[in-house]
């Protein structure tokens, strides 16, 4: 019989249902006094009002009323322990990763020393006003010339680039500039209107060094037929890209983003711990992993701080957390207004419950660096990246910071994908089977085999996708961007 429940840590006073459980059944040595839906928790002993509820070996809530053994534990009888202001101290914990066997991947080497896992031709509008023109240029080019000899042509449309002030304007420009320089792009056409505040001249002046045979610029108001002009520029770029070929490299060249969305009660039991093991693997192999979605570190942030490699990195993690809390307060929002309705339906009770599951994607290695908005990931090892939990913004941020692909765990399912391959990892077998058109990997299988077996399969998948195998989001043409906005629109 398949395993029906799990006590995650020896210290826990709750267990999690791995299938729907019925009142009166006996599990983990207690008789259930309620039905317990898959992914939800039940008490392993009597928990008095005010007593801590322990999961993952850490408090995730306190009892809002007396909870008898065998009772369903959720939002009706448990509340967060978190408060607005916390004091942090650096209590460094030893972190040591096991030696691993590095793998080889097939990548494109760029002139600046970076590597890409795709050789795609991109159209990047500087302003939303030319989104339609970008799409027309793309379709005209594809109909006339096709995409043989490279990995596809895409237009990354968005509604921004004009009527933005301050940080929003700068962030839009910076994200788009980072996209222009991303090594998964073999070439880019930057498309402007002409009167927007994201002016092409300023965009070019602050872009940095690029290969002019691969990056072209077009201002629509300055040409009579912008569609034909754009098509011709794409043709010039694609002729150069035709010469690009993959070559073998060590897997340590990869930067892997870590993200979860639509989490459920199994996220912290199957998919996130599996991705954490992959993070440890890629770091031990000399590569890079990047964890973001700062609000979903709240409640588990001290565990990440204790893994900082030194005091300076600890201070950066504290700044990362406190700056994002200040952003909530400036906008009059509760810092701990989380989890979402879908998370709660899946069995996640409090933000601590969600965060302790979410941060398992980071594995057990040391935090080597913290990356803020204006920076790229440059440090090998585990990095933390500033940004919100919103799926589209977070994946855009990860890719803009330099990640080649993103491992995206989900218990509820989502078709979304970013401008880099976005590998969807289901927390449960039911989702993997139901939405096989969305899901690339079934982490629910760890319940029937073990983590080591599934880790090897996940490594195989990452190597294959890095080498050209299409992720489901690429097959479905769900490749989108979203730029984090915090300020005023004129």
Give a structural overview.
By secondary structure, the chain is an alpha/beta fold. It has three domains: 5-79, Roll (Archaeosine Trna-guanine Transglycosylase, Chain: A, domain 4), CATH 2.30.130; 120-241, Rossmann fold, CATH 3.40.50; 250-475. The protein is built from 13 helices and 23 strands. The protein has helices at 131-145, 166-180, 200-205, 226-241, 271-284, 301-305, 311-330, 341-345, 351-358, 391-400, 429-434, 451-466, 472-475, and strands at residues 5-6, 14-17, 26-27, 30-31, 41-43, 52-55, 58-63, 72-73, 78-79, 104-109, 115-116, 120-125, 153-155, 185-192, 215-219, 247-250, 255-260, 288-291, 367-371, 381-385, 405-410, 422-426, 441-442. A seven-stranded parallel sheet has the order 19-20-18-17-21-22-23, sandwiched between helices. The protein has a four-stranded antiparallel sheet with strand order 1-2-5-8, with no helix packed on it. The protein has a four-stranded parallel sheet with strand order 13-12-14-15, sandwiched between helices. Helix 5 (271-284) links the parallel strand 17 (255-260) and strand 18 (288-291). Helix 1 (131-145) packs across helix 4 and helix 2 (166-180) packs across helix 10. It is globular.
């Amino acid at each position: 019989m398949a395993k029906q429940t799990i006590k995650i840590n020896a210290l826990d006073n709750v267990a999690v249902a791995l299938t729907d459980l019925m009142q009166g059944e006996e599990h983990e040595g207690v008789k259930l006094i309620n039905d317990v839906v898959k992914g939800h928790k039940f008490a392993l002993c009597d928990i008095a009002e005010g007593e801590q509820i322990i999961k993952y070996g850490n408090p995730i809530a306190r009892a809002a009323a007396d909870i008898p053994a065998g009772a369903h534990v959720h939002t009706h009888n448990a509340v967060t322990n978190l408060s607005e202001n916390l004091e942090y101290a650096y209590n460094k914990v030893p972190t040591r990763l096991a030696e691993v066997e590095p793998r080889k991947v097939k990548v494109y080497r760029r002139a600046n020393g970076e590597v890409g896992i795709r050789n795609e031709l991109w159209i990047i509008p500087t302003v939303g006003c030319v989104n339609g023109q970008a799409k027309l240029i793309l379709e005209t080019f594809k109909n006339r010339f096709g995409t043989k000899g490279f990995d596809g042509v895409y237009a990354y449309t968005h509604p921004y680039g004009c009527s933005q002030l301050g940080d929003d304007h700068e962030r839009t420009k910076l994200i788009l500039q980072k996209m222009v320089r991303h090594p998964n792009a073999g070439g880019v056409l930057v498309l402007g209107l002409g009167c927007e505040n994201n002016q092409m001249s300023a965009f070019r002046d602050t872009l940095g060094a690029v290969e002019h045979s691969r990056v072209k610029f077009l201002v629509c108001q300055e040409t009579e037929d912008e569609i034909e002009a754009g098509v011709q520029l794409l043709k010039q770029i694609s002729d150069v890209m035709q010469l690009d070929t993959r070559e073998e490299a060590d897997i340590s060249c990869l930067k892997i983003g870590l993200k979860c969305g639509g989490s459920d009660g199994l996220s912290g039991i199957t998919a996130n711990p599996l991705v954490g093991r992959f993070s440890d693997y890629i770091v031990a192999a000399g590569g890079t992993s990047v964890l973001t979605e700062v609000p979903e570190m709240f409640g588990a942030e001290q565990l990440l701080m204790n893994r900082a490699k030194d005091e300076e990195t600890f201070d950066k993690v504290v700044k990362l957390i406190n700056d994002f809390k200040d952003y909530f307060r400036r906008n009059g929002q509760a810092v701990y207004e989380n989890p979402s309705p879908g998370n709660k339906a899946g069995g996640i009770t409090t933000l601590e419950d969600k965060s302790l599951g979410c941060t398992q994607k980071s594995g057990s290695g040391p935090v080597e660096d913290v990356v803020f908005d204006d920076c790229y990931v440059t440090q090998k090892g585990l990095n933390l990246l500033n940004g919100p939990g919103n799926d589209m913004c977070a994946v855009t941020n990860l890719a803009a910071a330099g990640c080649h692909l993103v491992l995206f765990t989900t218990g509820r399912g989502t078709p979304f994908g970013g401008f880099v391959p976005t590998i969807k990892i289901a927390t449960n077998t039911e989702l993997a089977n139901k939405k096989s058109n969305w899901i690339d990997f079934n982490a629910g299988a760890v319940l029937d085999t073990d983590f080591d077996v599934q880790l090897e399969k996940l490594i195989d998948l990452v190597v294959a996708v890095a080498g050209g195998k299409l992720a489901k989001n690429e097959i479905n043409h769900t490749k989108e961007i979203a730029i984090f906005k915090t300020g005023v629109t004129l």
